[in-house]
Design brief:
Pfam family, one: HTH_1
Number of strands: 11
CATH superfamily of the largest domain: Periplasmic binding protein-like II
Structural class: alpha/beta
Keywords: DNA-binding, Transcription, Transcription regulation
Organism: Streptomyces shenzhenensis
GO cellular component, one term: protein-DNA complex
GO molecular function, one term: DNA binding
Amino acid sequence: MESRPLRYFVAVAEEHSFTRAAGRLGIVGPALSRAIRNLEAELGVRLFERSTRVVELTGPGEVLLAQARPALDALDAAVRRAVRASAPHRSVLLAVKADADGGLLEDILTAVAAEPDAEPVAVRLCGWREHTRLLRTGEADAALMFRPYDPDGIDAGVVAVEPRMAALPADHALAGASRVRLADLGIGPEEVDERAEHDIGEHGVHDLAQLLALVGLGATTTVLPRSVAARYPRQGVAYVRIEDCPPATLVIAWPERSRSRGVAALVRATTAVAESRGMGAAIRTPR
């Protein structure tokens, strides 16, 4: 089976409309309808319930959609990786969110050059929770990121574990304390992994720098890994260690079943740097 009919099917399923899907795909409506009918005939099942007002998936259609999306993503990723592998100057693309690298990135980039089978590493900056999508789509070969993350199709190893800090206004009653507890902040342990991301969304700001500006103005508080807090000193912000908070866990991740020697060299270099800082943990490298 060719991939094109599946792409057409996914577009209709996501748009709930043949007209909108045709516009998204850049084809005419009759051609799209004909392609979907041919797909249904080939599979011997009805994929959509059609009416003049709505297009809904049938049971078999829902099953196909759940399987088709990752299959198409994997195909696109394979094509991207194959094209990059043919380039005269190959490199490993490492996805990292700015300042969320445990303070290790510069040393990792230096250390990887000394590893056998190493390839040049190019950094792909990304946003919150973008790392695994980039790995699945072949837009990155490895990612350095904090948990949590969606593990589907991803292998990873723990690089470092570090304490979390409360970011408080400098005039906050607890700003001068040596330690605070989550209860002092009104935060539950299940909230800490995505607390900063939640606070950014809740306050309508665009990034961590803007969120910390609000903290300095006394408008809010938040929670950060210690290495991230160290990158954002602010005159109006006090960082205080949270003594009963689950630690932040930094991992290096790569696509499941990766056989890239360049990625393996990057993982080894990351392990060595973390261990040299006293932050290391055993990592299973891609074979």
